[in-house]
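Workshop exercise sheet. Pairs work together: one partner reads the sequence aloud, the other fills in the structure field after running the prediction. Swap roles for the next sheet.
Pair: D.N. / O.F.
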Amino acid sequence: MIHGGGWRSGNKNQMQFIGKEIVAKGYSCFAIEYRLSLEAKYPEGVIDVKNAIKFIKDNAAKFNVDPNKIAILGCSSGGQMAALIGTTNNNPLFEDKEFKSRSSSKVHAIIDVDGVLAFKHPESSEGDMASILVRRKIRRNTRKLEKRFGVEPYRSKYATSIIHL
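Structure field:
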Protein backbone atom coordinates (compact mmCIF):
# COMPACT_ATOMS: atom_id res chain seq x y z
CA MET A 1 0.00 0.00 0.00
CA ILE A 2 1.34 3.40 -0.99
CA HIS A 3 0.35 6.60 0.82
CA GLY A 4 -0.52 9.85 -0.87
CA GLY A 5 0.74 13.32 -0.12
CA GLY A 6 1.44 14.97 -3.45
CA TRP A 7 4.74 13.07 -3.79
CA ARG A 8 6.17 15.57 -1.26
CA SER A 9 4.68 14.61 2.10
CA GLY A 10 2.96 11.86 4.05
CA ASN A 11 4.04 8.51 5.42
CA LYS A 12 2.94 4.89 5.56
CA ASN A 13 0.94 5.47 8.77
CA GLN A 14 -1.71 7.14 6.60
CA MET A 15 -2.62 3.67 5.33
CA GLN A 16 -3.48 2.22 8.77
CA PHE A 17 -7.27 2.44 8.50
CA ILE A 18 -7.58 0.98 5.01
CA GLY A 19 -4.96 -1.64 5.87
CA LYS A 20 -6.95 -2.83 8.90
CA GLU A 21 -10.07 -3.14 6.75
CA ILE A 22 -8.25 -5.19 4.12
CA VAL A 23 -6.64 -7.45 6.74
CA ALA A 24 -10.09 -8.03 8.28
CA LYS A 25 -11.12 -9.50 4.90
CA GLY A 26 -8.28 -12.05 5.08
CA TYR A 27 -5.60 -10.38 2.99
CA SER A 28 -2.05 -9.46 3.95
CA CYS A 29 -1.04 -5.78 3.74
CA PHE A 30 2.27 -3.98 3.76
CA ALA A 31 2.36 -0.20 4.04
CA ILE A 32 5.49 0.87 2.19
CA GLU A 33 7.64 3.90 2.93
CA TYR A 34 9.40 5.53 -0.01
CA ARG A 35 11.58 8.57 -0.57
CA LEU A 36 9.55 11.66 -1.28
CA SER A 37 10.28 14.13 -4.08
CA LEU A 38 12.12 16.44 -1.67
CA GLU A 39 14.47 13.58 -0.76
CA ALA A 40 15.11 11.99 -4.15
CA LYS A 41 14.43 12.64 -7.82
CA TYR A 42 11.85 10.74 -9.84
CA PRO A 43 11.74 7.73 -10.31
CA GLU A 44 13.59 6.88 -7.08
CA GLY A 45 10.39 6.68 -4.99
CA VAL A 46 8.90 4.26 -7.52
CA ILE A 47 12.07 2.17 -7.41
CA ASP A 48 11.90 2.15 -3.59
CA VAL A 49 8.43 0.61 -3.76
CA LYS A 50 9.51 -1.92 -6.40
CA ASN A 51 12.41 -2.94 -4.14
CA ALA A 52 9.95 -3.38 -1.25
CA ILE A 53 7.83 -5.66 -3.47
CA LYS A 54 10.92 -7.75 -4.22
CA PHE A 55 11.70 -7.94 -0.49
CA ILE A 56 8.17 -9.09 0.30
CA LYS A 57 8.35 -11.75 -2.41
CA ASP A 58 11.80 -12.89 -1.24
CA ASN A 59 10.30 -13.37 2.23
CA ALA A 60 6.91 -14.70 1.12
CA ALA A 61 7.15 -17.87 3.23
CA LYS A 62 8.03 -15.85 6.33
CA PHE A 63 5.14 -13.44 5.71
CA ASN A 64 2.75 -16.24 4.61
CA VAL A 65 1.90 -14.60 1.27
CA ASP A 66 1.62 -15.96 -2.26
CA PRO A 67 4.27 -14.17 -4.35
CA ASN A 68 2.19 -14.87 -7.47
CA LYS A 69 -0.80 -12.92 -6.16
CA ILE A 70 0.56 -9.45 -5.40
CA ALA A 71 -1.66 -6.39 -5.79
CA ILE A 72 -0.52 -2.81 -5.37
CA LEU A 73 -2.84 -0.19 -3.85
CA GLY A 74 -2.23 3.52 -3.59
CA CYS A 75 -4.22 6.63 -2.72
CA SER A 76 -3.91 9.94 -4.55
CA SER A 77 -0.24 10.38 -5.51
CA GLY A 78 0.28 6.86 -4.15
CA GLY A 79 -2.41 5.74 -6.61
CA GLN A 80 -0.46 7.33 -9.44
CA MET A 81 2.61 5.45 -8.26
CA ALA A 82 0.65 2.18 -7.97
CA ALA A 83 -0.59 2.55 -11.55
CA LEU A 84 2.91 3.33 -12.76
CA ILE A 85 4.38 0.37 -10.87
CA GLY A 86 1.74 -1.97 -12.28
CA THR A 87 2.19 -0.77 -15.86
CA THR A 88 5.99 -0.96 -15.79
CA ASN A 89 6.40 -4.63 -14.87
CA ASN A 90 9.80 -5.79 -16.15
CA ASN A 91 10.69 -2.31 -17.44
CA PRO A 92 14.42 -1.78 -16.71
CA LEU A 93 13.99 2.02 -16.47
CA PHE A 94 12.13 1.44 -13.21
CA GLU A 95 14.32 -1.27 -11.68
CA ASP A 96 17.24 -0.98 -9.27
CA LYS A 97 20.08 -2.95 -10.82
CA GLU A 98 22.01 -2.90 -7.53
CA PHE A 99 19.18 -4.33 -5.38
CA LYS A 100 19.96 -8.00 -4.84
CA SER A 101 16.83 -10.12 -5.07
CA ARG A 102 15.77 -13.43 -6.51
CA SER A 103 12.27 -12.02 -7.18
CA SER A 104 10.80 -9.59 -9.67
CA SER A 105 8.83 -6.47 -8.78
CA LYS A 106 5.92 -7.63 -10.96
CA VAL A 107 2.46 -7.06 -9.53
CA HIS A 108 -0.70 -8.83 -10.65
CA ALA A 109 -3.32 -6.18 -9.88
CA ILE A 110 -3.51 -2.40 -9.47
CA ILE A 111 -5.86 -0.54 -7.14
CA ASP A 112 -5.58 3.17 -7.88
CA VAL A 113 -7.65 5.23 -5.44
CA ASP A 114 -7.96 8.69 -6.97
CA GLY A 115 -4.50 8.74 -8.55
CA VAL A 116 -3.68 10.47 -11.82
CA LEU A 117 -3.39 8.08 -14.77
CA ALA A 118 -2.36 10.65 -17.38
CA PHE A 119 -0.96 14.10 -16.78
CA LYS A 120 -1.95 14.78 -20.38
CA HIS A 121 -3.68 12.00 -22.29
CA PRO A 122 -1.71 11.21 -25.48
CA GLU A 123 -4.92 11.08 -27.58
CA SER A 124 -6.33 14.32 -26.17
CA SER A 125 -6.01 17.75 -27.66
CA GLU A 126 -6.27 19.27 -24.19
CA GLY A 127 -3.89 22.14 -23.82
CA ASP A 128 -3.26 22.58 -27.56
CA MET A 129 -5.01 25.96 -27.83
CA ALA A 130 -3.47 27.21 -24.60
CA SER A 131 -0.13 25.99 -25.86
CA ILE A 132 -0.48 28.05 -29.02
CA LEU A 133 -1.55 31.16 -27.09
CA VAL A 134 0.86 31.04 -24.16
CA ARG A 135 3.58 28.61 -25.20
CA ARG A 136 6.37 30.33 -23.25
CA LYS A 137 4.39 30.47 -20.01
CA ILE A 138 3.47 26.77 -20.28
CA ARG A 139 7.10 25.80 -20.88
CA ARG A 140 8.25 27.94 -17.97
CA ASN A 141 5.57 26.49 -15.64
CA THR A 142 6.34 22.94 -16.78
CA ARG A 143 10.01 23.45 -15.96
CA LYS A 144 9.04 24.79 -12.51
CA LEU A 145 6.82 21.76 -11.84
CA GLU A 146 9.48 19.38 -13.07
CA LYS A 147 12.02 21.03 -10.78
CA ARG A 148 9.61 21.11 -7.83
CA PHE A 149 8.68 17.45 -8.09
CA GLY A 150 12.15 16.23 -9.04
CA VAL A 151 11.22 15.13 -12.55
CA GLU A 152 13.82 15.65 -15.23
CA PRO A 153 12.23 16.93 -18.46
CA TYR A 154 13.27 13.95 -20.61
CA ARG A 155 11.80 11.55 -18.03
CA SER A 156 8.56 13.36 -17.24
CA LYS A 157 6.59 11.65 -20.01
CA TYR A 158 7.40 8.26 -18.44
CA ALA A 159 5.67 9.29 -15.17
CA THR A 160 2.29 8.81 -16.83
CA SER A 161 1.20 5.19 -16.41
CA ILE A 162 -1.06 5.24 -19.47
CA ILE A 163 1.96 5.61 -21.75
CA HIS A 164 3.20 2.15 -20.66
CA LEU A 165 0.04 0.27 -21.72
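Discussion prompt: Residues 44-58 form the longest helix (15 residues). What would you look at next?
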